Amino acid sequence: MYLKDPLERRIDKLMDQVTRAGDDPSKRAAALEKYLRFAYAHDDGLMDVAAWTEELVDAYLALGRIDEAVTAATKASRHGHSEAGELLCDLAEKLMRSGHEPTARGLWDTARTDFPDDVWVFVQAGSEYHDLGDHATAMSWLTPGVELAIRTGDPESALDQLVPLRAACQTALGQQPDELQLRAAQELARRR
What we know:
By secondary structure, this protein is mainly alpha-helical.
């Protein structure tokens, strides 16, 4: 019979509290706060901080506690508990879609600063601003995203999304395809 060590028993107890909280965002947030405090204090890789931070962020959003959601996502990202800027970008997308663009803008900027080589930060921000109809701001994300993808050889195939998004923004802004757009389109055609 396997006997759990005290750390594993404590984790199980905290997870039971999360489970008992159910879908009640207030109870869930309180239980997840306890769990994550413990996880940060015992950072030994046993706990999935990123996934539970995402759950906490969703609970905070359901409660209208936007600043706390931003703080939780930023902390997890800066402590390496996220795939590059994923937590920040996911929260920024949710905020953009719920009318909180100024707060999302800060998250996009943090993601760009903290993860300058993560092409998906540029794709996601550019896409969200495009969808919002703010084509000039979208271009400020898509242009460096295209440059990054070309410079790195586009290992993640981000040009597949960047090129058409940037073309749509240029059209909406009454611009002709520039040298960068033509070069990116050629790169896409070469790969196919």
